[in-house]
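Priority: low. Protein: AB hydrolase-1 domain-containing protein. Input follows.
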Amino acid sequence: MVQTQHFTTSDGAVLGYRIHAPLSSSSSSSSAVPLVLINGLSAVMEHWSPLVESLAESRKVLIFDHRGIGASTVPDDWDHDLTIESMGLDLVALLASIGWTKVDLLGFSMGGHITQALISIEEGKKTSGGGVEVRGVEIRKAVLTATMTKLPHGDADLQAIQNAAAKIKGKQERDLYITTEMMRLQYHADALRPGTELYKKFEDRIQVSLGTRQPAEIIASQFFAIQGCDVRKQLHRIPSTLPVLVIHGHRDRMVSYSESDYIVKGIPHARRFVPPQGSEFAHFWYDYFDTRTWSRAITSFLDDDNDAASRARL
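Result:
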């Protein structure tokens, strides 16, 4: 079990984080730029398993909980003024505190939205290595997964879930219903057949969500942060020397695949990765296929000095 550590922000929020590292040290893993995984809406560190363990075979990988959720807290007097940019700057402050001055970022869903905001932030400065420096931390490469530039379209009927949940009297039963239905939306219906490996992952994800701290008011604040941020007008600030890889499945119900078109249009040098198994996967992308399919592709992109993204299949 990797130990959870804590960092206190300037306004009193406490961010829980964990650093996964290769079990055996080698020259390649020691010299590899650390990778940071950025959670999506309502997600917590536990949701990154088993991808984080696979990625950590070749480099240090940091995962963390956004303020107010999971292992992270907020002060009693916090005003819930949350933005996509402020969540990114929470991370930058955390990285600076542990002395990580150069990193790669992988953002999932809202985390990808945050990643785009950071690498296109107005105060960002292009580094000699081609990345973007934000408050002393250089972002070298970015992986954007199942994400968007603005409040996304999808085929999920969240209001119907809320309406059905309101008719359930017991809190425990109501929480189970909401968690199950929200998790169901992370996959496409054709794939969720009882007895399959993917269905077992789906059931495991439900238990993780039920067993971790995910306050409704924090999730609402995260949603409003997404709603209030459209990064399309600032993507031109991302230098072409900062490689960007895009992963998005055609069966995504939470963030329509078409939302990624805004990304590749706004970041012309961004490239899509499609696994050999094809693009018929949904929002919880790394639960599809074998975990190493994803970790190998991401590791190759991060390790390739000649920009592996340019060779990723379109």
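The beta strands are 5-8, 14-20, 35-38, 61-64, 102-108, 125-126, 132-134, 137-145, 244-247, 271-272. The longest strand covers residues 137-145.
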